[in-house]
Amino acid sequence: MKRAQLIVFLIFVLGAANPLLAQTPTPSPASSPSLTAEALLNHAIELTGQLDQRLLTTVYWCLGILVTVFVVLIGYNWFTSFRTQKREVAALRQEIQADLDVLKKETAEHIQKMARDSTNDIRSSLKAYVQSQLASLKSSIGHLQALTLANERDEWRAKGVPLNALRKHMDYLRQVKQTGYEWQFQRGLDTLQQILKDFNSGSVKPDAEEIAACTKFLTEIEKENPVIVASIKSLLSEIRK
Length: 241
Known about the structure:
With 241 residues, the chain is mostly helical. It has a domain of 107 residues. Helices cover 89% and strands 0% of the residues. Helix 3 runs antiparallel to helix 4, helix 4 packs antiparallel against helix 5 and helix 5 runs parallel beside helix 7. It is rod-shaped, with a radius of gyration of 68 Å. The N and C termini lie far apart (167 Å). The relative contact order is 0.04.
């Protein structure tokens, strides 16, 4: 509709200029008005085509600008989104790293605690084992020493030297008291009675210092063995006479 109005306007303008164009001399006056109108129409059509071309060019330029703006907006949006995503990824990475550091620290502390507990348990077990082995070794050594003293005592008794037998037997009693069994100690007290009885038939008797040491030992064990200790002290009293 606008195009038709524009064409009519151009025809009107050209028609208004027709008197000026009519003054131009032509070879055939009868045919001049007809040629002039046709030229004007062609000129109007040409102007309309040019106008259409300019309108299309303008539209193309507008479309190009819109596409460019659209592309720029898309690129800016992608760039800002990428920047935001990059910051979020960096923040997430820092958070994960912090969690890993905490987990690593807690794991190391837990392992160290387990190691300390295991070390303490191993140390306690090893200490108890060593102590038990030392006690067993000490007991074995004590039994060996007691057995050696008992053999030496028996040898002196067999040789008829009750004084040396008494000395070895007192060492035997002290050793058995520390590391031996109760039955060994009780048997040792019975053997002490027999050794003291050997002095009654012999001429050599223990001196006062040896009798005092024997009496002191008997006093220490008198509470646990009152009957036999009383009998042994009675024998010592007879030896002093």
